[in-house]
């Protein structure tokens, strides 16, 4: 017999070893996330995928699915907590969406739309993080980093180069380049690396291809992230998600 847990009252099948997030995605169900990626080991840093299991909060990307679990995902309480986390991310960095090349393809921006985040609410930090344009093919804008560590994991675990790392603690945490000079040009980073394409925001940008896809025709311009994320990498037999595309005001 196939094992199941309940996600917002709906039975979700899973196989032993799957996390709640993995099983939900395989079933075409969207749980918000930024630091999780199906190709890398989860570490639950962004907390956006937090759900309630048996009345207790846990990150769905690290919690193992189990028979009989009662999981809450789409509730007003969780939506408000996720909205607050997004507001904190927006003020911690410098995120000016209208002028960003990543607009329309940005996971942070699209998730904010999904959660109905209309204002950052908190005072901006405006951190001073220099742009690194030293590499011939890639521009780094550290001001947009959300510390998801996807580039760190991709460079280390897939590319075998460990080009990126996080430095500092608390509010001083920031992304750094592992070279004596701190410049990307002084590493063996290549535009073909997995790390070059994994950033969910506008930190790692390829040069000379800016706005090749015009704003208005990009991935999240056409469909909300809940629809895109629920179906990307999902098995062909996964049930269809019934979420409707939301209009943006």
Descriptive labels:
about 250 residues, alpha+beta, Ubiquitin-like (UB roll), Alpha-Beta Plaits, 2 domains, 5-stranded mixed sheet, 3-stranded antiparallel sheet, 6 helices, 10 strands, globular, disordered C terminus
Explain the overall architecture.
The structure is a single chain. A hairpin with a 2-residue loop joins β1 and β2. Helices cover 21% and strands 15% of the residues. The C terminus is likely disordered. By secondary structure, it is α+β, with helices and mostly antiparallel strands. The chain has six helices and ten strands. It has two domains: 72 residues, Ubiquitin-like (UB roll); 140 residues, 2-Layer Sandwich (Alpha-Beta Plaits), CATH 3.30.70. The strands form three sheets. It has a five-stranded mixed β-sheet, with helices on one face.
Number of domains: 2
Q: Low-confidence runs (pLDDT<50, min 5 residues)? A: 234-249
Order of helices and strands: EEHEEEHHEEHEEEHH
Rg on CA atoms, Å: 19 Å
Number of strands: 10
What is the CATH class name of the largest domain?
Alpha Beta
Number of helices: 6
CATH architecture of the largest domain: 2-Layer Sandwich
Strand order of the largest sheet: 2-1-5-3-4
Query: Helical content, roughly?
Result: 10-25%
Ends apart, CA distance between termini: 46 Å
CATH topology of the largest domain: Alpha-Beta Plaits
Describe the biggest sheet?
5 strands, mixed
Tell me the structural class. alpha+beta
User: Rough shape?
Assistant: globular
Quaternary class: single chain
């Amino acid at each position: 017999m196939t094992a199941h847990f309940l996600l917002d009252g709906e039975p979700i099948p899973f196989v032993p070893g799957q996390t709640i997030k993995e099983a939900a995605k395989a079933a075409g169900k969207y749980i918000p996330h930024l630091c999780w990626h199906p190709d890398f080991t989860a570490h639950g840093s962004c907390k956006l995928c937090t759900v309630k299991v048996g009345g207790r909060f846990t990150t769905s990307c690290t919690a193992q699915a189990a028979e009989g679990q009662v999981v809450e995902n789409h509730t007003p309480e969780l939506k408000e907590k996720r909205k607050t986390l997004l507001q904190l991310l927006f003020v911690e960095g410098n995120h000016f969406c209208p002028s960003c090349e990543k607009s329309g393809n940005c996971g942070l921006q699209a998730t904010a739309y999904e959660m109905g985040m209309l204002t950052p609410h908190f005072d901006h930090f405006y951190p001073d993080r220099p742009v690194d344009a030293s590499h011939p093919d890639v521009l780094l804008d550290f001001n947009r980093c959300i510390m998801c560590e996807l580039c760190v994991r991709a460079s280390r675990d897939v590319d075998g180069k460990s080009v990126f790392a996080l430095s500092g603690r608390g509010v001083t945490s920031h992304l750094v380049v592992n070279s004596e000079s701190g410049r990307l040009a002084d590493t063996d980073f290549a535009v073909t690396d997995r790390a070059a394409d994994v950033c969910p925001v506008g930190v790692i940008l390829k040069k000379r291809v800016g706005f090749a896809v015009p704003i208005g025709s990009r991935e999240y311009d056409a469909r909300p992230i809940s629809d895109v994320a629920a179906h990307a990498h999902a098995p062909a037999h996964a049930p269809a998600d019934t979420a409707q595309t939301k209009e943006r005001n």
